[in-house]
Every structure is written in C-alpha cells, then in structure tokens.
Write the structure tokens for this entry.
Amino acid sequence: MSFRLRLLLFFLIIVVVPMIAVTVVLLAITADSEMGKADARIGAGLRAAFALYGEGRDDAAAELDRVVGDDQLAPALATGDVRALKARLTAIDERSRTIVSMTFYDSAGRPLASVGRPEGVAAAAAVPAVPGRGRVGILAVSVTDATALARRIERFTGLEARIRREGRMLGSTLPEGPAPTVDAEEIEIAGASYRGRADFLPEVAGPPVVLGVYDESAALSASIQQSRFLIALLLIVFLLAALVGSQRVVSALQGRLVQLLEAARRMSHGDFSRPVPVEGRDEFAALGIEFNRMSEELAGTIDEVQRQRDELGRTIRLVGDAFATGLDRQGSVDVAVRTAVEACSAAAGRVLSTEARTMRPTFVGTRDPDVAAGLEAAEGQARARLTREGRDPAGTTRGPDSEPADRSPVAESHVESVHALAVMLRARLGAGAGVRPVAMMSIARREARFSDAEREIFGYLAGQAAVSLENASLHETVQLQAVTDELTGLHNARQFHRTLTAEIERSHRFRNDVGLVIMDLDDFKQVNDGFGHQQGDLVLVEVARVIETQSRDIDEVARYGGEELAVILPQADSEGAAVGAERLRQAVNELQIPRLDGVGTLSVTASFGAASLLDSATDKDGLIAAADAALYRSKRAGKNRVERAERVVTPR
C-alpha cells in the first residue's frame, strides 16, 4: 500500500469514525434535549397550574370569612342538627353568586353536610368554634369550578389540563380518557398521544385532588425527526467535504509532511516562536507561508481569548452584583451602567434619574469635559427621538394595562472624536401606574465608533435595567400592601402587633410608658343589616379617617379586626391614653356620614378602652387584655364612653 493511500486511509479513519460516533451521540442528545424542553415546559405549566389553584384557594378564603360570620350558622352548628346545618348552608349558597360548593366535616374528617356542585375545588377551610362545645368540625368553601379552572390553566399555559378527585373527573380540556395519575408521563386519548405530568394537591379537608397538564406528543416527535434529519444531512456534507479535502491535503503533504508535523508539534506545545522554513515558490512554500501566518494568528487569538476570558470574569461578577441588588433601584442602575461601560469598552457612563426622590445620579469612568459633552449630545438625541415618535420624554405614555417596562431605541452621537450612546429607560413604577421615562443611561469613548454588537449589548442592558426598576417598584408595593388594611388604609393587625412589640421593647429600654386605646363601633351590625355592607364599609372608612386625623403624628392607628380600631400612643401614660380616647370619641360622635341611598346622613358612636403598660400590664398581651377589658366595661356601662383599665402594676 502506497504512502499516499495510507495517509488518505488514516485521514478518513481519524475524521470519519469520530464524526459518526459524534453523530450517534448527537442524535441521542437531540432526542433527550427536545424531550427535556417539553418536560420543562410541562413542569413550568404544572407550577403555574398550582399557582392558579392557590389563587382559587385565596379567593375562597374571602368568601369563607363571610360564611363563617353568618349569624344563623352558629346556632345550626351549636345544635348539631345536620338538617338545620345543611339548610343554612343551602341558604347561604343560594344567596352567594360566587360559591361553587360548601362541605362541613366532623372532627374525624367525615362529610356531614354538603351543598353546591361536586366540581368545586381549591377550597378554603375554617374550624368554627361554638360556645360550650368548642371546635365542632371543619367548614370548607370553594369558589372555583374545576372545569373553569382547567380552561384558565389552558389559557395561561397553552397546555391541556385535567382535574380529578377519587377517580372522578371534575374538569378537563381533553375528551374523556384514562384518569390522570401522578406517575404517568404518556397517555392516549381519542387516538392522540399526550405527554404530561400530574400531582396531588391536598385539600384542607376531604380527599386530595390530582391535577395534571399535558401537551400533544406529535409536535415533539416531529421536532426530534427534523433535528435528526439535519444532523444526518450535515454528516453527509461533512463526509463528502472531508473526502475531497483529504485528497488535496495528502497531495500537498507529500515530501514536506515531516517538516510540517514538527511545526505542528511545536504549536501544540504552545511554541509559536519558530516558523516553518519556506523554500521555493511552489504550493508547499505557499502552505508553509500560510502555516506561519496561522501560527501568528493563533497566538494572537489565544491572547484575545485570554483577554476576553478576564473580561467575562469581570462581567460575571457584575451580573452577580445585579442579582444581589435586583430589588434595589439604585443598585440596579449602578450595576447596569458599570456593566455597559465594561462590556462596550467605554471611557465613561452615567445614569440621570427622573426619580430624584428614590434614585441619585450615577457616574462611572472619566470626568473628561469632552466626554461629558458627548454624553449630553447623545442624551439630547434620545429625548428628541422620543418627541419625534410621539412620546412625552417627561410623562406617562402608556396606560396601566399596557406592556411592561421597556426601553426606547438607542440614540448615537459623534462630537469631534467622542462617540456616545444613550437610551431612555421607561418603566411602570407603582401599582396602577403607566409606563413612563424614569432614567437616561449613556456611555461614551474617544476615537472608535461603537459597533452594532456593542449597541445591541448596551440596549439589552438598558432593557434589563428598566425591568429591574419595575421589579423593585413592585416589591416596594407588595411590602406596603403586606402591612396595610385594604379597606381603611390603616395598618393591619399584623403591623399593629409588630409596632406594639417594638414600642414595649422601647418602653422597657428607656423606662418610658406606652398607651393603648382600643375602640369598637357601637351597634355596627345594625348599620350593616339596615343599610347594607357597602354602607358599613363607608362608615369604617370615615371613622378610620377621623381617628387617624385626630391622633398625634407619633401615634400608630391600626384596624384591629372587624369594626375594632386600635391606637398605640408612645410615651403616653394611662391618663394620657384616656384623654386621647375621649378626644377620639367626641370626633366620632360629631361625624356625619352620607348615606349611599342619598337620603340624609348617618351618625355612629363608639366605645373606648384605654390602658398603659406601666399601670396595667407587663407585656404586650397583658396590655391588649387590659385595654380590651376596659372596652367591654364601657360597652356594659352604656356604650359611647371611655373606660380606663384598672391599675394592677406598681409604677416602675
């Protein structure tokens, strides 16, 4: 066998065999990858379905409060009469427009009375307590229909949904088929195959629900076949190219193979200092020249790769900082402009915020006046572009239901030798707000213009910064809602307890007193029964407004529960708390609340209990109990009055 033939055979072996092996592996990986993508989509869909299920349970909790608060339900529970209980639940169900089903379980979890449709899921439960009998069982209320939930899941996820309980299908977007099980990934319905997942959703009472999401398998199979066809086609093209190339390479290598092989070995060890000797002007000489040129370019490429690797490391650290400050407005824009300067090799960058109250200007890099002028020119072009597009650079351009945070197109300027990019960040800051300009981000450098890739990176970072600003604003809104009563705007009970605990700790530390006033509207049930719950809500809102207005700036007013409000009075003793309570009582007494039917006004009264830590308690629970006891004494003494808690603790 000739040396030429042996070289050709060797070349084919070292190229073709590995490529075939790689192709086989790629075919397997492609199938796994496509299935993995499908499974990831299904997994995300299942998590979204669980979240929608949880929203249904949250909606049921609000309805549950109204059911538990029904005046005639407690007597039915107290008698233990199942018929009376079911009759009362039926009456409540007929009155409600939202309840799907209600079930009362005994203490052992057995259903005693059930009304509504069996398709009710995502129930919220409460354990009613009856005087003299204690906790009598579990009341579960559902406002979510399984079929409606399945359709909602399909709209949100694009996947089919099936919901069953104890083998019975409650709701589905698919035709009838085998019941979903938690361990089945492939099912067949009406001649079509589906891939999906199902899992248990334990109910607060009663048997668990199995919820599954599914995607048709035909699309997955087609995607796998297409990927395999492309891989096979690429293999054939590569093999043909390899065969043709091998013939040419073998012809060129004869006579100079050893010399080139030695040069290749030197390069493989990182030695680019010794070029291949070039003799003559034939093809081998040209090959030697190209080999030397390749060696030089490879050495430069390795240096560039190392530089980019170092730069990538810095960028990764900056991105890590961005994740760490993702809910901080200032941190988000700081990281965005620093990353933009690094990634685009800029000399300077800055962010100028329109939200001076929450964000300060950020400057990175040189303070060269020429560079600063370039930044200003680019920023001016960005504002002018917004104006040309019909957007107000200083105002809201979209309503609260439009698309999320975005960025305007990137503007570019050239002032003498300075090149600059600028973009207006636009985001929705605050619940219900529209998308509006919130900050201007710009970068600049001398001499070299910014490439298309750098413009794209800059625009991407600006968009991410806008999204991060919106996320931070949403986080701030959620934090505020977590401590605020939705109806009155006062602090809720959770924040009340947190504030009272802090004030008592401060009282112990500095030996100051702290007062507490608890008030309860007199005969508030008559307002709800006589004028409706909307009128009752208006009464609560107006009373809360008056209490907050008449309280001191340092006082903390909270909705304690129902028609009860509480006021924490820092540095107030028992007498001061009583005086403050009397002022609040008079303000409520003088309040005139318009009737919703337009016929005149309503007036209400309230009873107050006042206490202080040093006179009536030693801890938070004791202080609340003392004020509560004083409140009930004022109720028993005729209402519309203030009672002070009894003095039980020696002053410290």
Notes: The two ends are 110 Å apart (CA to CA). The chain has four domains: 38-230, 274-322, 325-480, 493-644. Confidence is low (pLDDT under 50) at residues 395-404.
